[in-house]
Write a structure and sequence with these properties.
- With about 150 residues, this protein is an alpha+beta fold.
- Helix content is about 15%, strand content about 25%.
- The longest helix is centred in the C-terminal third of the chain and has 11 residues.
- The radius of gyration is 15 Å and the shape is globular.
């Protein structure tokens, strides 16, 4: 996660299936961009970023394009080593990582009306976005960024 309070300074993350998450707090006048991959989400990166921002309930959260539950196949061994709490997002061999991230955002006190999801699956969007899984590890990356004006 990268935080910015300075107007005019841009920050971004490179992804190809992980969730690029933008957090913008109009009260604290702070923005943050988070690279929310599975392991980071399992380690509560989103809640930690919001806490570090001292985020208000008015914080806006935007989920950019990432691999969705329609395409995100995992084995249940990913929940070993203390991540059993995330099994509730696992159904029929696919992982709904978006729900885990949204739950972390709302658990941190952000209003659900301030959460915006692009709805784009990187794996389904052939030719538009890179997908690490679809391209079997030989994929480029795209950048998601934010700037305070």
């Amino acid at each position: 996660a990268v935080f910015v309070k300075n107007p005019g300074l841009s920050v971004g993350v490179l992804t190809a299936d992980c969730i690029p998450l933008i957090l913008a707090d109009p009260v604290q006048k702070t923005v943050c961009v988070v690279h929310a991959g599975r392991k980071g989400v399992f380690l509560n990166i989103v809640e930690k970023a919001l806490a570090r921002m001292n985020a208000s309930k008015e914080t806006a959260a935007v989920l950019g394009p990432f691999i969705r539950k329609c395409c995100y196949e995992v084995k249940d061994d990913v929940f070993e080593n203390g991540f059993n709490d995330f099994k509730k997002y696992f159904n029929g061999g696919t992982l709904d990582i978006a729900s885990a991230v949204i739950d972390q955002i709302t658990s941190a006190g952000v209003l659900s009306k301030n959460i915006h999801d692009s709805g784009i699956c990187t794996s389904c969007s052939v030719g538009e976005f890179f997908s690490h899984r679809r391209e079997q590890g030989v994929a480029g990356r795209f950048m998601t960024g934010v700037c305070i004006k």
